[in-house]
Design goal:
The protein is α+β, with helices and mostly antiparallel strands. 27% of the residues lie in helices and 21% in strands. The strands form two sheets. Strands 3-2-6-5-4-8 form a six-stranded mixed beta sheet. Strand 4 and strand 5 form a beta hairpin. Helix 5 runs antiparallel to helix 6. The longest helix is centred in the middle third of the chain and has 9 residues. The radius of gyration is 16 Å and the shape is globular. The model has no long low-confidence stretch (mean pLDDT 93).
């Protein structure tokens, strides 16, 4: 059994973060990825040596559905309290891990990127801990909707407004989206 992960305000304790400009921080303290999506990727890349954490996630979570999880939802996991903050946007490092930069387009097209969380209360997470919903966000924007919005050539105005009004998203992302109004 592995020792528990300690979720700190801006990072997972003892996690090495190569580039703090794009990883870690208040809105990307910990990355969660759904175990259910592994089957899809294993079929596409059967030659890889598969193990949990393949997508760079800190936590591989059962039953996490980005089409239902709202940005701003608050969850308890272990002794920590976390808030859904934003989906993962893939970078070249995922391409290195998979042996091809083509994975970036495939990851975007697939549309299930996992999610970063903001740590509201530091705590420990152990294998087997459940992700328990504590508070449902009043804003209806899901992780899946926001991820699709980020890459859509034509931005859906209704989804765009949900994003701009969602205070759980980083302010710079909300400000950047205003140019599409």
């Amino acid at each position: 059994m592995r020792s528990p992960l300690v979720l700190e305000t801006e990072k997972v304790a003892n996690d090495s973060i190569a580039d703090r400009k794009v990883h870690g921080g208040l809105y990307k303290a910990c990355y969660l990825f759904s175990t259910e999506h592994y089957a899809h990727w294993k079929k596409r890349y059967p030659h890889l040596d598969w193990n949990w954490g393949m997508f760079g996630e800190n936590l591989s979570v059962n039953g996490m559905d980005e089409t239902e999880i709202r940005i701003g939802n608050i969850y308890k996991i272990g002794t920590a309290l976390v808030q859904i903050s934003q989906p993962r946007e893939p970078c070249f490092k995922l391409g290195i891990r998979f042996g091809t930069q083509q994975i970036l387009k495939e990851f975007i097209d697939y549309g299930f990127p996992g999610t970063y969380v903001k740590i509201l209360k530091e705590g420990q997470v152990s294998s087997g801990d459940k992700l328990t919903l504590i508070q449902l966000s009043d804003n209806l924007l899901t992780v899946h909707q926001f991820f699709k919005l980020l890459y859509a050539k034509k931005k859906d105005k209704k989804v765009l407004m949900l994003a701009i009004e969602n205070l759980a998203l980083p302010e710079y992302k909300r400000e950047r989206l205003k140019k599409y109004l």
